[in-house]
Amino acid sequence: SDKKIGIDKIGLYLPPYYIDMVDLAHERGEDADKYTLGLGQEKMAVPPESQDTVSMAANAALQILDDDDREKIDLVVLATETGIDKSKAGSVYIHHLTGIQPFARSIEMKQACYSGTAGLQLAVSHIANHPGSRALVIASDIAKYGLNSGGEPTQGAGAVAMLIKEDPRIAIVEPDSVSMSRDIMDFWKPNYLEYPEVKGQYSSMQYLDVLSKVWAEYQKRHDVTVEDFESFIFHIPFTKLGEKGLRKVMKGAAEDKKAELKKHYEHTRLLSKNAGNIYTGSLFLGFLSSLVNDPHLSAGDRIGAFSYGSGAVGEFFSMELVEDYRERIDLEAIQSLFDNRHKLSIQEYEDSYNKELPVDGSEYETDYSGDNSAIIVAGIKDHERQYRVR
Ligand code: CAA
């Protein structure tokens, strides 16, 4: 069909705290350059106990929804690998907290960091089949590997919300995706574990190998080359890995094209560099970063996207920027998320690390004094999370 469907609005939520990677390196006895240059990270978002995956997602959605959207949305997808319940979808709470009309379908999707893309693709198909409707897709996660763990410098937390509709005013999602599934154990989280099992080097190797394979297959199926793209976005667990991914994609390109693509990537990585890994939302944080920061992009440009979720599923697809896309971004809201964060010392970060909602079923009230977010978790009562809308 010649219907144009894609991203009409995009919003971000970040928790109100962060730590500086140089502080963390000093405290862990590492060279600061390892984190800033080796991993490509500068600041890492830290969630307070008053934010969970659901509240962050709802906060991101509130950034973009208006009453017309609330009337027309009939699909709500939460993409996450850090859900709060093994049965009930987090999107049912979000549907309620954001005031969407009742006749909507709400589901949660899981496949490590990949499911944001699965949610986006599902939403695009849904709109194709339900003309005039709108879909809300939110990718939200809290990435934790444990204090002093190998993965500690690649943590983060946050949510990206996207409104999907026909004739989108940010980007058209092209029906060209190529996916790949590969049953491997590079990163996974058995139900009984608090933190994931992760084979760090192996996971990075798999990420890059799956990227090479889906990119090669994509080029073959669609008869395109790197020259057909203006810029590339990646799942960014740490921004150095996206840089390595770009090198794979650029292999064989002319030197001037390579230089151009590297310049674009600097804009793509900027938000992730200052937020860390937000898992499912990470690819879209890179996209948002390009929209906000990249002065060399314009309407009609084609952007290649690589999504990866350990376990593993990878997907390559493309998007086309639409006229005046930049006017659709609330630049001020995004800037203020970063500007209004409070820096924690490493001691404060460690003290807060285990101050989470209890997992033993006991009742709990959170301390949300430092959290001005519109939606917060007030606690747990009778095994029910208590969300407050301010
Ligand atoms: N100055 C400059 N660079 C330095 C340095 C210094 N003083 N010291 C080290 N470096 C460089 C290293 O050379 C290395 O870069 P290259 O790989 O380009 O050579 C980089 O810093 C990191 O060093 P190490 O590889 O030694 O780091 P590590 O083994 O301690 O940890 C990690 C890195 C494996 C990524 C670890 O943080 C981790 O396990 N993270 C979680 C897993 C992860 O994010 N995997 C990504 C792929 S899986 C995925 O994408 C899904 C997902 O979101 C989890």
Can you put this structure into words, describing what you see?
With 390 residues, the chain is α+β, with helices and mostly antiparallel strands. It has 12 helices and 18 strands. The strands form 4 sheets. Strands 1, 4, 5, 6, 7, 8, 9, 12, 13 and 14 form a 10-stranded mixed beta sheet that branches. Helix 3 (53-62) packs parallel to helix 5 (90-97) and helix 7 (200-222) runs parallel beside helix 8. The longest helix is centred in the middle third of the chain and has 23 residues, at 200-222. 48% of the residues are buried. The mean pLDDT is 97. The site of acetoacetyl-coenzyme A has 27 residues, from helix 2, helix 7 and helix 8.
Structural class: alpha+beta
Poorly predicted residue ranges: none
Helix content: 25-40%
Radius of gyration: 20 Å
The end-to-end span amounts to: 43 Å
Q: How many E-type strands?
A: 18
The best one-word shape is globular
Kindly estimate the percentage of residues that lie in beta strands according to DSSP.
25-35%
Total of DSSP H or I helical runs spanning 4+ residues: 12
Give the rounded overall mean pLDDT: 97
Task: Profile the largest sheet.
Answer: 10 strands, mixed
Order of helices and strands: EEHHEHHEHEHEEEEEEHEHHHEEHEHEEE
Listed once per kind, the bound small molecules are: acetoacetyl-coenzyme A
InterPro entries: HMG_CoA_synt_C_dom (IPR013746), HMG_CoA_synth_N (IPR013528), HMG_CoA_synthase_prok (IPR011554), Thiolase-like (IPR016039)
EC number: 2.3.3.10
GO molecular function: hydroxymethylglutaryl-CoA synthase activity
Organism: Atopococcus tabaci
